[in-house]
Amino acid sequence: MNVQFKKGVLELCVLVLTSKKDRYGYELVEEISKKFEISEGTIYPLVRRLTKEGLFSTYLMESNEGPPRKYYRITEKGIELKNELLQDWQQFTKGVNEMLEEE
Q1: Using CA atoms, how far apart are residues 23 and 9, in angstroms rounded to an integer?
Q2: b/e per residue 10-23 (b: at least 16 CB within 10 A)
Q3: 69 forms bridges with which residues in the sheet?
Q4: Are 61 and 68 within 8 A, CB to CB?
Q5: pLDDT tens column, 11-51
Q6: Do 14 and 82 touch, CB atoms closer than 8 A?
Q7: Count of CB atoms situated within 10 Å of the CB of 58
Q8: pLDDT (tens digit, 9 = 90+) per residue, 57-84?
Q9: pTM value?
């Protein structure tokens, strides 16, 4: 899959997944990788930036499989951005699909 396609939609995917439940970094990688291939190296800088921008809060939770995990919880500001991006995405894909159907 085209790298630019993935980069453009990855933030929306992360926001949508965390709006359903709190997630830790590797869990985000696993969930997104079920749909398209990504590396851990793309998720961690993204969630750090989203946290810095106030779109996520974080907390540590003990794990049965090693050290505590940092979980990301979407904030109200993050939910607002997710809703805006979802609306933009739906409008964008509708336009692209219409052009493809004209082909």
Answers
A1: 18
A2: bbbbbbbbbbeebb
A3: 61
A4: yes
A5: 999 999 999 999 999 999 999 999 988 988 899 999 999 99
A6: no
A7: 13
A8: 999 999 888 899 999 999 999 999 999 9
A9: 0.89
